[in-house]
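Weekly structure sync, notes
Attendees: PL (lead), two postdocs, one rotation student
Agenda item 3: pending single-chain targets
PL asked that the sequence for the first pending target be pasted directly into the notes so everyone works from the same version. It is reproduced below exactly as submitted, 305 residues in total.
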Amino acid sequence: MIDSNSGEFGVSPQPVTREGPDVQAFVSRHRALFVLAVVLLAQLLLLSVQITRNNDVRLIRVWAVAVCDPFERSLRGISDISTHTWRTYGGLLHAEQENQGLHEQLVSAENQIRELSEQASESQRLRALLEFKNQIPYQTVAAEVIASSPGENSNAIFIGKGTDAGLTPDLPVITPDGVVGKTIAVFSSSSQVLLITDPSSGVGVLLDQTRIQGILKGDSQSKCLIRYIMNEESISSGENILTSGLDQIYPKGLRVGTITRTSAGNIYKSIEVKPAVDLSRLETVLVILKPNSTPQQALNAGPHS
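Predicted structure, written out during the meeting:
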């Protein structure tokens, strides 16, 4: 048997290789063709330089424009888009800044309007207070409400006038709407006022239509009650309540409030009264001085009382 792998026949096996075409051999074989192509391209370029078209434009330039025009258009389009985008962003930024400025101006204008409205309301309130002061036959001192007594159901306030303005205890405190209360503690530049809604307060009152008299007491809930009116008396809701003057503190005829509800009790009626003054919104009040006294006289008499 003959071993095919032995070198018995003197022929050694050669490895089989698969190489690509020889580029150098290909170029050598077609050299004349490449030379011809280069010469033709050179001639074409020379002719394009020499030949002109309409308006004396050389052909080489026309070709160059034709080749470069798509790229130039693309670049121009990108540039236009970028420019438009930047301008849009700048416009939005400017609009936002302008909007912020307008918002600040609007807030400032609203604050000014609010201040002017407050000033107008205060001026109107003071004008009404002055007119009321000139109409009533009592000597009064105007005072600002500066604080209220601490507590959830506070029934006392502090005003910014005291002995320096001739005030003394037990002076009536009113507004153009009606009775507020009376002074109970007077200091040099302030006074404490007990409101008519306080249970310890008492006001002699008179029913406007029936002329029935009673005592107004507070109930600590922004309302008042009239005591000591017999069940036999005919009283209806909506009747106005005035001061009777019998308590020797409040002058007769000042408005106190309006009857809101009545009911019979064991002996006396239970009569609820809504105060004529909104005691939760007091800002400026009038303090009625004692008859035949001036602020300076009251001031001089203060230390001796």
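Discussion points:
- Confidence is low (pLDDT under 50) at residues 6-11, 296-305.
- DSSP finds four helices and twelve strands in the chain.
Action: rotation student to compare against the earlier draft before next sync.
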